[in-house]
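Anyone able to model this chain together with 2-deoxy-2-amino glucitol-6-phosphate?
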Amino acid sequence: MCGIVGYVGPRDCTDVLVSALTKLEYRGYDSAGIAVFEGGKIEVAKTKGRLADLSAKMEREGKPQGHAGIGHTRWATHGEPSDVNSHPHSGRRVTIVHNGIIENYKQLKQFLIDNDRTEFLSDTDTEVVAQLLDFYYDGNPIRCIRRTLHELRGSFALGIVFADRPETVYAVRCESPLIVGQGQNEVFIASDVPAIIKYTKDYYLLEYGEIAILKNGSVQFCSLHGRVIEKELHTADWDEDSAEKGGYPHFMIKEIHEQPTAVKTTIMPRIEDGLPNLAECGITFGTLRRLKNIFIVACGTAMHAGMVGKYVIEKLARVPVTVDIASEFRYRDPMLSRDDLVIIISQSGETADSKAVLNLAKERGARTLAIVNVKGSSIAREADMVIYTHAGPEIAVASTKAYMVQLAVMYLFAFETAIAKGRIDETECRHLTAELVRMPKIIEQTINAVVDVCQYVSTKLITADSLLYIGRGLDYALSMEGSLKLKEISYIHSESYAAGELKHGTISLITEGMPVIAVATQNTLLEKTVSNIKEVKARGAMTIVICDENADIDKDAADYMIRIPQISEMLMPMVATVPMQLLAYYTSVNKGNDVDKPRNLAKSVTVE
Ligand code: AGP
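re: yes, here you go
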């Protein structure tokens, strides 16, 4: 979604803002802009399109010169992507950038119109906030921010400059994430750490309702009531290189290759003497033993990791698991009790619907566990327990390594719950854990083994209008992710289907040459899946089968076979994910798409 940056310091502010915004491009955007203090006045440059368009515009029309300012990449919500709807937006004395949504902007606009403020240029909710700040501004910025925030409903973060407070940037957070970077005699604001990592690794996390005042290269924090707040300084444990492509053509392929390391870094600190140990994440045997029901709630890829988790937890620990989409769960009045555990999975830890589910679960007395990649994110901070995945920054919109580590955590959690519940003994748990420890090596071998065939098979997919992913059991859970990955970056319509369900309607879609990708890694279900593959083949489908190296499948059932290393059936999802990611990646590359920033999508969905 939108990205906010701000800077106060000795460098060329415009250069810093543009460079920081470049690092937020992954969030998705359709326009960009900056506002910089130049000679005591606020100069604004903004445009529809990419940051390159903004730079070209500034080249033509003049680049604001100064040392303090704010910047923004916009992902349109209110009003089409256009120059005029781009941020920053201004009132007479106030200019702002905004991430999030103001739910009551129409009422506020009417209030302003009723009070003779009629100069609205854009269709945005943001301009209403700028005008409202201006309306309340009496020379005291904090009082004005407080009064304005009191009126706003929604979740948002703002970067603000006041015309009569030169060289000063104000920032305030209400739900939407915002950090403040502290460098040597310079300070930054940003929606995410990658924006500032080039300049500093040290940052503060702004909390709900806190205001940051950036001036003279340093920052002061206060509450909405002006009370000074001391905050803890965090240091990022990764560097600029982690947020760079490092020689790869796209972040997505780099992140696919980072998976072995990501899994290792995620699981190894949670294994002690050959057994999982999640105590450091606040998860005790007592909690696990008492569990009656588990709800795994998330969005998109994270929800798909939960689908795999359901199969594994139910099989090993015999605890019923419900998996739901956060945007559905939050509105279906779920039945939750104190002995239930609600697990929220989220790479960003800021997804609006997932966050709302967390709050709902807490309100209803359930225990909550967050599985999150971004340290200090809202979901991680608000859950009762948290297991951080250590994937490092994931920049490509299409999630790969974050999904892989979410799977790894699902396994660790399932093993620990199973042993706590007395469903498996220590020997079996050790055996399972040892197999999980082998996964980084096996994932690496798989990438090397299938990269060429995936590249080749992807050339057969590029002309397809529509395709199906099918599988049974864990393969079905996995095929949901394969299908999402492919559609989000290749723009080919794709559905995932439980293979046994095809005959109940969907098989009528099969036409000559339609690709059907079958995931067939579950040996206990192999014969049945093969029958389903033959059924679609007999009706003209072009079949691509992902199976293990020893699977006994007739050559004539598959037009293309992608063989992967064989490990225990239960852990196959972590291997079979790799060819699905590569098929999506190369199909997108072959179609000439913007792989890392697919159209209409944002990395972190911070609005409902
Ligand atoms: C994945 O490729 C997606 N782009 C998307 O489905 C994502 O997984 C979803 O928006 C959830 O995000 P989160 O993990 O940050 O909560």
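Residues 299-302, 346-348, 351, 354, 397-399, 488, 601, 604-605 surround 2-deoxy-2-amino glucitol-6-phosphate (CB under 6 Å).
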